[in-house]
Amino acid sequence: MWKLLFFFSAYLLAQAEENYYKLLNVNIDANEQTIRRAFKKLGLKYHPDKNEDNKEEAEKMFMKIANAYEVLMDSEKRAIYDKYGEAGLKKHQEQESQKKEQQIRFGDRYNQFFGGKKQKLFDDNKPNPYENTDVITIDLANINKLFRRNEVWLINFFSAHSQACAEFKDLWITMAVKLAGIIKIAAIDCEEEEELCDEYSIKYFPSIMLFSDNTAEYPELYKGEKTLQAMSDFAINKMQSFVRLVNTRNFHEFIEVDPNVAKILIFTDRKVTSPQLKAFSKEFKGKVNFGEIRSTETELVNKYNVNEFPTLIGLDEESEVDKFKGEQKREEILNWINGFIEKSKNHGSKIRELSRNLYITGKCSKSDKNYCFLWFIDRENNDAKNILKTLANDFANDQIDFYWVDKKRYPAFGLAFEGKIVAYRPKRKKYVQIDCEDYKCLHDKLSNILSGGGDFIHLEFVPELIESRTEL
Predict the structure, then answer these.
(1) Strand order in the sheet with 184-189
(2) Where is the J domain (predicted)?
(3) Residue at 158 is within a domain
């Protein structure tokens, strides 16, 4: 009698708990292939990267369907569940000392089912046509690469049993080689990843879809000719570019904006920005500002002694730091860019010309909390600049920035201060006049000021840095 009560209680509990068949949206007599496909479809639906606004709930739901799938794919567990429900199954698991379900993290659980060696839905042992090529094969195990992309992707949705797809394969592999480092070229097998192909409403093979670098945008189906040139042009036109066209009129502004970001110029005879340069500008956004100078800008071409195109030059302020001398290959250029970034970081503390462009970004204006060491000089005074460089390195760990100011370019700004060298605190509207110009004296006086000494002069207002136009 007690056995009957136990099983009856287990049956009642099962009615109040999860129904594994409903969770997976399959019938009670569903076979393994149907259950597997249903699970993969739900696994895609509840992937956290597709549910940015509700990641926690998506992960919880995935854990539920994963548990249901694991039970229904195990003949012994499924038989117990069918008879006694979830409560009876848990009792069985306790007896077998298998109480680890709650400790498994989402990522581990997801990889448990979709990572590692894939279980094929077809047993024809047909190989992956893109294995060991530059084409990225996408499946549920690595779908996060697509969901978290920040580049343009072209994806070939194909069928391994389609003659048209087989004939298209070599062209797609060539695409991946040609656009390496520029556009991500990928492929999805719609026989093995039916759920992914359903997700994007694929109706025929091969189908090419473009996924922009904006993950919020729905992908675009490519409807043009399936030629190397046409598909490449289609994808490249969708690329973002952060390359700035630089000429003699905006050259100083390009150099002065974002003072803590490395500057790289490319001198070119092309009329449009190259795809590779677009890709680099996106890849190094925030680390490098890329400027493109046309070969017709003879003043800048001559300034940097450019004799051939394209030529890449890394700049620190207006002076040449490094010129790329290797072959115009992605890996060589990539290594040079990374090396230049590190070199720029290790140049020590920089001195800069205080310009209007820097000023409007907050340097030495009323919002600047740091000291500004200002030396009003003629542009050609390299002796003063060298002393400034040494001082900047000496006080690299202090809250002070070092600038030289072109006294001819900004005469009104210089008249706001007494003397040609000052330690200025714009936030507090005060400064100290320094009345010597040799390195030792400047060092000693600056040390005293930063320690709280010095005779400060208060300003009624923070002076504006406005360029003189009298010569016009």
Answers:
(1) 136-137, 184-189, 153-158, 207-211, 220-221
(2) 19-85
(3) yes
Shared domain for 393 and 440, answered yes or no, is yes
**Each residue's pLDDT tens digit, 216-271:** 899 999 999 999 999 999 999 999 999 999 999 999 888 877 777 889 999 999 99
Indicate the pLDDT class of residue 62, thresholds 50, 70 and 90: confident
Q: Looking at the structure, tell me whether residues 357 and 426 fall in a common domain.
A: yes
Spatial CA neighbour of 151 closest among 284, 268, 22: 284
| Total domain count, the chain | 4
What is the C-alpha to C-alpha distance for residues 53 and 38, in angstroms, rounded to an integer? Answer: 24
The confidence score (pLDDT) of residue 117 equals: 46
Identify whether 121 is part of a domain.
Answer: no
What residues have CB less than 8 Å from 79, skipping those under 6 apart?
none
- Decide if 125 is inside a domain: no
Q: Among the three residues 321, 347, 373, which one is the final residue of a domain in this structure?
A: 347
Query: 340-358: string of b/e by CB count within 10 Å (b at 16+)?
Result: bbeebeeeebbbbbbbbbb
Tell me which long-range contacts 243-247 makes (C-beta under 8 A, separation of at least 24). Answer: 243/273, 243/277, 243/278, 243/281, 243/290, 243/291, 243/292, 244/289, 244/290, 244/291, 244/292, 245/291, 245/292, 245/294, 246/291, 246/292, 246/293, 246/297, 246/300, 247/293, 247/294, 247/297, 247/300
Q: How far apart are CA 344 and CA 296, in angstroms?
A: 29
Residue whose entry in the numeric block shows the structure tokens 């999805």:
188
**Using alpha carbons only, what angle is made at residue 148 by residues 218 and 186, rounded to the nearest 5 degrees?**
75
Amino acid making up residue 311: T
Which pLDDT value is given to residue 85? 82
Q: Which residues of 57-73 are buried (b: 16+ CB within 10 A; e: fewer)?
A: ebbebbbbbbbbbbbbe
Per-residue CA distances from 447 to 374, 437, 466 (Å) = 15, 15, 30
Enclosing H/E stretch for 207? strand 207-211
So what's the pLDDT on residue 461?
87
> What domain range is 33 assigned to?
2-114
Which of 347, 373, 404 is at the close of a domain? Answer: 347
Q: Is residue 26 part of a domain?
A: yes
257-302 pLDDT tens trace: 777 788 999 999 999 999 999 999 999 999 999 999 999 999 999 9
- pLDDT computed for residue 106 by the predictor: 53
| Across 17-45, average pLDDT | 87
Dist CA 350 CA 416 (whole Å): 25
Determine what percent of the chain is predicted with pLDDT higher than 70: 86
Per-residue pLDDT of 110-167, as tens digits, reads: 555 555 444 444 444 567 899 999 999 999 888 989 998 999 999 999 998 899 999 9
